[in-house]
Amino acid sequence: LFITRNLYHHNSEASQAWKVIINCPIVRQDILSFCICAAIGQILILCVIREFGSLVWVTVSVTRQLFTILLSVFIFHHAV
Fold first, then answer.
1. Predicted confidence band at 79 (pLDDT cuts at 50, 70, 90)?
2. What would you report as the CA-atom Rg of the chain, rounded to the nearest whole angstrom?
3. What is the pTM of this model?
4. Is the CB of residue 80 less than 8 Å from the CB of residue 70?
5. What separation in angstroms does the CA of 68 have from each of 13, 26, 41, 60?
6. Residues 6 or more apart from 40 whose CB is under 8 A from it?
7. From CA 41, how far away is CA 52, in angstroms rounded?
8. 34 and 21 in contact (C-beta within 8 Å)?
9. Considering Cα of 30, then 33, then 38, then 41, what sign does the dihedral take?
C-alpha cells in the first residue's frame, strides 16, 4: 500500500483507501476483526485436515457451498 501510494500519488484509489483507514478508527477495527477471523478460520481448516484428512475437508467444504447456494436460491430468489 505504501509503494502504491508513492507511485500513484494522491489521486489513486489506494491513496483514498489509505486516507479512510487513517481517519476512521471503525474501519481499522473492522479490518483487524476480519484479519483475526480469517486467521482463526485458516487454523480451523488446517486442524480439520490434520485430524480427519483432506477428503473430509473437501466434503465439508462442498456441502457448505451447496447449502449456501440453496439458501441463496430459496431466500433471495437468485437464479442458478
1. confident
2. 19
3. 0.65
4. no
5. 32, 29, 17, 12
6. none
7. 16
8. no
9. negative
Q: Residue type at 17? A: A
DSSP state of 43: H
Q: Which residue type, as a one-letter code, is found at position 16?
A: Q
Q: What is the CB-side half-sphere exposure of residue 10 using CA atoms within 13 A?
A: 1
Residue 14: Cβ-neighbour burial (10 angstroms; 0-12, 13-18, 19+) = middle
| 11-22 residue pLDDT tens | 778 778 888 999
The cell for 51 is 485430524
